[in-house]
Please model this.
Amino acid sequence: MSAAANRLRRRHGAEWRFRACGAIAIAIAIAILAALLGGILWQGVGALWRTEILLDIDIDAGTIDPAGTRDPAALAGADYGVLVKNALRARFPEATERKQKRDLAALASNEAAYALRDRVMTEPGLIGTRLKLWVPASSDVDMLWKGVLDRDTLVDGGRLDADQVAWIDALAADGSVATSFNAAFFTGGDSREPEQAGIAGALVGTILTMAVTLVLSFPLGVAAAVYLEEFAPKNRWTDLIEVNINNLAAVPSIVFGLLGLAVFLGFFGLPRSAPLVGGLVLSLMTLPTLIIAARAALAAVPPSIRDGALAVGASPLQSVFHHVLPLAMPGILTGSIIGMARAAGETAPLLMIGMVAFIVDIPGGITDPSSVLPVQVYLWADAPERGFAEKTAAAILVLLVFLAVMNLAAVVLRRRFERRW
Amino acid sequence: MSHVALAAILLLLAALGYTMGRRRATALSGGQARRLHSLPSYHGLYVALWCALPAAAVLAVWLVAEPQIIAVLLMPSLPPGSAGLTDGAFQLLLGDIESFAAGRAPEAGTDPAVIAAARRLSELRQSGFILLALAAIALGAGGIGWSRSRIRPGLRARNAVERATIVIMIAASTVAILTTVGIVMSLLFESARFFAQVPFSDFLFGLQWSPQTALREDQVGSSGAFGAVPIFAGTFIITLIAMAVAVPIGLMAAVYMSEYAGKRARAIAKPALEMLAGIPTVVYGFIAAIMVGPALRDAGEWVGLDVASESALAAGLVMGVMIIPFVSSLSDDVMNAVPQTLRDGSYAIGATKSETIVRVVFPAALPGIIGAVLLAVSRAVGETMIVVMAAGLAANLTANPLQAVTTVTVQIVTLLVGDQEFDSPKTLAAFALGLVLFAVTLATNVIALRVVRRYREQYE
Model:
């Protein structure tokens, strides 16, 4: 009797342990997800702010407008960097040696000169006066001020020297260092300097590429799905098409990149790095997923709908296009949005067609060289400067928000319009 | 961009044709639609299709043929002596002309002959485009005129439009086949060129991989540096590590979700796992390279192990996390498909839930689970960004997961990104690797799908 009770206890113990294993597996997966998202949020949120320095700049007419004509072309081409440097030197007259002067000028970003130029161009009346202006600091100062790197690491690593740290402290003491919202991150293109790099170019590139993908893959996918689900006779040829679609859905994405490289760039001679080619490759990649989703949505519409339409005299095409397709549309749209979201996060095939080039300008059309968000993440993750780590995480955040919005749209669509038969 | 504008004009023209056809049919019917064979809107579509299809065909043919035609026409205006150039130098010259024509090169310092050729190129392109635009618009307008004149009350416009629709849909469904053909042809063609220079057996069984040294022919080791075994071994190790992470976690998660979890727990766990699958791979790559790799190296230092910062372990672990949802969602499906009667039978003879799962549900679902794991393996083998960012470049032949290894996908990316000369064995090797990758993943998928299908039939 007690042997049986023991055995039962053992078996119940095993039962409990097995169940705990399952719960632990799920807990691990959720913990990893939380750690992943939390880590990226924690790293990337800093890039939304940038460090600025308040400078008292003497806008010397002799330097930027020696002719005194206030000619916009001359003003645009003038050397504002000198004014920024002079303002820094005036603030710290003790920097006299060559190296010290250079270090001092390195506190401010190159961007400072452009910020000053834009201000002077809009208000030419400022020429010849003194102006207190917040200018962006260099990336190393930014890292120091935001506390991403501590000062010992920066000094030991040779990124900043003791003089520079002392100057920053002096500026901070009279309230001349502050952080403000980094709007340039959302409006600027890529840059070699971490503090100037923005994602606007990549974001526009992603939108253009997705537009090409959508325009190509949605009509093709729906047409193919309607044919295969509603009209195709059951024969060798349609079997072949079906096997093809199922296999293409599982082909590694990089193979589509090789196809794009060999066919679109090599054979057709389309431009490298262009959203047009990116969209072509991604639409070939998305097409199988889209067709499978659209077929599932069409198959879910009950045959009574078709029979009803045919009974009142509609042609087979009319019954599909007037009745079945509209009823299946929410499902098709949900499937294609999810497919598009996957394509928007894809990197590997785009590397193959040269979308990894360093591109500063924001693309204006589908044939301009461009980057996309995931590729921008890849490029910045590879950059050695410490300032880019923060930018990379921030770019990932933007990408994840972009994808979350798409997926949310799919969920909302499903909730609102899905019909259960 | 101007091609897009032209396409937009043609679309507008087709829309115009639609209204014209519709109006004409309505007018002919005298306000009584039943006198017509087809509804007026079908007459409109009939005219619109006659307008758009021929013009679109001309546009498509031109887009494909333009580069060749322009190249032939440009020949006479190339700088003298260019006919005698080698292939590479000739391509370089064309590149110069191209970049000047696109306004990317300054006028100063450019050869006047190149400038002249570039001007001619721009002229040719412009006149070609004007001709194309005129032809397409004339064809569209002609189509409208001709088809509109054919509209009668008895015209079987609906049948014509439906026939055209079916043809368009068939064409759309063959795109999938064309894609496969395109992949196979481009991989085979480039690989054939590679194997013309490097023997097939050297590639498949060689133990040395150093494609970078093969750039110049006079260098040491310029031949026989394309032995892909270290790459296959590296891919195998990383896949193995990934599966060691993904299979236990994914399988146990699937068991919990399909057998134990209540509605509430499912509603949280399932979307969370799906989110793991929705995160772009480049994000996993960043995590592996910036967080996991250095953390493992520090941990190794702490216990006195020498861990490379681009170790196979870091890439494999992160890839395993990425694969978890593939294993779990498919296994979840197949376990749900096991009939409840089997479980009930097991409970009836006194088995506990875990005993039922291990002794009854698992064996019944095994083929499906194997299929799921195989699909996950093919996903892991073809995964690119995690290994590009977190695994090494050097092809070490080692079984030590703490060292850096390289994979097929990493090599494809490193060989093809950057400078491109299309005829060196270095770039062609990437296509040979791509062919291997395609063949392996295809075979795995075919087997997996077959296994899963046979299993499903068993219970249906």
Observations:
- Chain B is about 75% helix and 0% strand.
